[in-house]
Amino acid sequence: MHWSSLTANDYNPNVIQRAEITLLENSILTTGWVQPVLHNAGIILDGFHRWWLSHNSQALMAKHKGMLPAVDVRLGIIEAMLLTIRINRAKGTHAALRLSDVVRRLIDAGASPDQIRQGAGMTSSEVDLLTGGTVFTAKGIDSHIYSKAWKPKQR
Question: Contact, 3 vs 54, CB < 8 A?
Answer without folding.
Answer: yes
